[in-house]
Amino acid sequence: MKKHLKIAACLFRLNLASALEYRSSFLTQAFGMALSNSSFIFFWWIAFQQLGGYIAGYSFQDVLFIWATTSSAFGLANVLFANAANVTKLIVSGELDAYLLQPCNVLVNVLCARTSLSAYGDLAYGFILMGLAYHDTAAAWLWFFVGVLLGSLLFSAVTLTAHTLSFYWGDASMIGQLTTEFVINFSIYPDKIYGPAVRALMYSLLPIGLAIHVPLRLFRAFSPLTALAALGASLLYCVLAGVFFSRGLRRYESGNIMATRL
Amino acid sequence: MKKLRKYAVIARVSLKNAVAYKASLFSRFVFYTVFIYVFVMLWRAIYKEGSVNGYSYAQLIWYLIFTEYIGFCCGTGIFSTMNEDVKSGAIAYLIGRPAHYVFYQFANSLGLLLLNLCACGLLAAVLGLVFAGPLPGFHISVLPPLLLSVALAVVINFFFLMLIGLSSFVMEDNGALFFIYQKLTFMLGMFLPVEFLPSWLQPVAKSLPFSYVYWAPSRLFVDYSPALFRALIPRQALWAAVSVVLVLLCYRGSVRRLQLNGG
Fold it and tell me: Exposed, middle or buried: residue A16 (CB in 10 Å: 0-12, 13-18, 19+)?
């Protein structure tokens, strides 16, 4: 475990150094992403201006909480594990060979190999939003941090699971993109806008609700049982995603491609 | 006439290319359906809380379906194509061809635009009927003026994106300009009708080109009247003309700065 963390930390340092090498591009993309997120908050502001009160049981403050948690969780996932969305490409093109030859855990090596520049904007945006909406509420910050940590793991695990299907079905890039789209949309809107079937999906197969909507509920009314159940289920999902990837890896056939990792 | 014929050939080839990639078309359909589903669920929840000024539920759902439809029609990737052409130097090969680069790019995107217009149009109609039922007051005779408005919206969007793409001649990283343009069009018409904006912001929105990409054609669609048509179409035509002229001027200036090395 210590060795894996060391490798992850080393890859993070390398990725950050590489990102900082192109400072203007890094800042532009991070700023662009924060701006992009702001447009959705503008939408919600207008919607609540029109109606006031609550939409599907969520106040404007609640929407800011789920937006902040989603933005930072998605950002952290893509700062640390951006390569999860690249797994299909690695499998289909045969570039996975380069990772298999290196003397470290394949999953850690694959997930941490790449970072996303715009994800830093997402990560920072959540904190800015929390600073504006909950600057003096310690409990909100506590559940925000829990949501960000669990959410980043779940975003990565869900993306990895979808792309791992490429080991079994061939090119699963569309399923991967669609899954990402679903988990984002499940996170940034009140969960009660969806019907029971979709709600069941967002707490089971694509369980991002556990990291975004459950922390909000726990902030409103703490329940140790709910907290433990959400934590246990999230960690179990991540472990299963790792096992699914390792099983799939056994079916991988080398592409005989000449590839280098610089 | 002969000049137009060569652009028609380019458009025909681009249409054949667009049709060949059926998986890409299918994936756009899936994403479009997902977006519409999410928006319908959201606005259903919002309308449960109370009425929204000026739009009935059916009108608003059709409005959103139409704005997303225009968004999907406009998805030709012209901004990244322009960026790539300029940064990779591929523009050197394209400007040497016996066709004006700007109109070549437009004709080259026309095939995909037309395919999106037809194929996504059918899907949009089906989704609208499923989620909102027939649009009250809509008559088939509205289609020609509506198509004109959509065509002008597509031209405004295409040429403004091209203008941002051309900025890569002078800016190393023009991604922020693209983000700003995209979000302005989203906020001033795509996600919300201009009528929902605060009263101080509405005249500002109506005096800028961004609202004429999504809001103008969608407003015409859900609440058509000859008076509204007369009010919106000249403004759309004006912004379309402005965008084309700006692109031509910038292109002329940019090509002068172009330096080619190697053989």
Answer: middle
